[in-house]
Structure formats: C-alpha cells, structure tokens
Amino acid sequence: MTTNTKQPTNMEQFLEGIWKQNPVFVMVLGMCPTLAVTVSAFNALGMGVATTFVLVFSCALISLLRKQIPKEVRIATYIVIIATFVTLVDYIIQAVSLALYDALGAFIQLIVVNCIILGRAEAHAAKNPPLSASLNALGMGIGFTIGLLALGSVREILGAGKLFDISLFGANFQPWVVMVLPPGGFFVLGGWLLFFAWLAKRKEARHGK
Asked: Which residue of 51, 52, 158, 161 pairs with 179 in a disulfide if CB–CB is 3.0 to 4.6 A?
C-alpha cells in the first residue's frame, strides 16, 4: 500500500526558513558570523544580504546541475559553486562600500563554508527543482538576515546609543560597552533565544487548554 506524502507549496518552502527553521533562532547555525559581525545593524544587514545572495544563486545553480553532478564529488562541486558566488559578492561589496568591506573582513570569504549554505545545497537544492530551491534559499537568507539584524540592532542601540549610525538618546547616554565586545553577542543571542523559548512555551500552554 502506498501513502501520498503532501509536498510543501512554494510559499511553504519560502516561509520555512523565516520562522519554522530560522537559521539563527531555531537551528542555531552560522554562529561565527552571527556573533562576530553584529556589533551594528549596518554590518548585520550587509552580511545578511551577502549571504542571501550567495545562498539563492548557488542553490539555484546546484539545483539546475543536480542530475549532472556525480555523487562522489558533490560536496567539492558545491563548494566550488558557492566559492564562485562568494568571490563575486566580495568584489561587489568592495565596489559599493569599503567601510562595510573592512568591517566584515574575512567573514565574507568564510561564507564559502557557512553551514547554512552547504546544508541547503545538500538537503534541499540537490533534491528539488530550481524554483523550489531558490524560494527555500531566499526564505533561509531572509531568516538569517532577520536574525543578524535582531542581534545587531540591540547591540548597537545599547552599545553605542545609535541605530544605523543615527543617534537615539543624545550626548548624555552612557553606552553599555560590553555590547560591542564579544561577550555582548552571547548575551544578546541568549536573550533572544530565551524570548523565543518563552513564546513557544506560551503557545503550547494556550493550545493545551
């Protein structure tokens, strides 16, 4: 007897990475750039957009070539494809903003081995058609960008009294210096994870009534 497994719609594929499988707050992936570059909202947005660009185009190309790539060299092939788009985005960032390029530093090149991108390539793009793979990658990229912005905004507001370099509290504000230091990233990430865990518990309790 065969069972019919309902395939997720394109919209479900897209929304998956934004909330249900958010790379930062649910799967807790890509923590190295998440904690390192989120000292400001601008840096967070730049890294998020760069990662989304690489994620979407690499997954689309891997999906197009999925039947031609030999299984024995698939990971090496994925890395070559991802590295090509990382090189492209590296040059684009240099051309658009040297300040952002200097702020992100080596983390641009490290997008090549970002487990979010490799995971999407292996688990989804290699098994699904280009449209589905692209939408899923776009959702994951947006979810990752939202996660970075959530951390970067809090750290910049508390650590510098600014948001996107716009002063919020005036000259008398005493910044929380720890927020722009490495421990600040862990504190803010822990706070967001605690908040989402509380939301999940509250939802479970509401459905349990």
From this structure: 158
Burial environment of residue 160 by CB neighbours within 10 A (0 to 12, 13 to 18, 19 or more): buried
Report the distance separating Cα 100 and Cα 81, nearest Å. Answer: 24
CB atoms within 10 A of CB 208: 6
Instruction: Give dist(CA 84, CA 72) in Å, integer.
Output: 20
Q: How many CB atoms lie within 10 A of CB 92?
A: 14
133 HSE (CA, 13 A, CB side): 27
Structure tokens at 2: 């065969």
3-class SS shares of the chain: helix, strand, coil, % to 5:
75, 0, 25
CA distance 15 to 19: 7
Vertex 14, ends 9 and 20: CA angle to 5°?
Answer: 100
Other C-beta atoms closer than 10 Å to the C-beta of 36 total 17
pLDDT digits (tens, 9 = 90+) for 22-39: 888 888 888 888 888 999
Kindly report, residue by residue over 86-127, the tens digit of the pLDDT: 999 999 999 998 989 998 888 888 888 888 898 888 888 999
Closest CA to 59 of 91, 108, 17, 1: 17
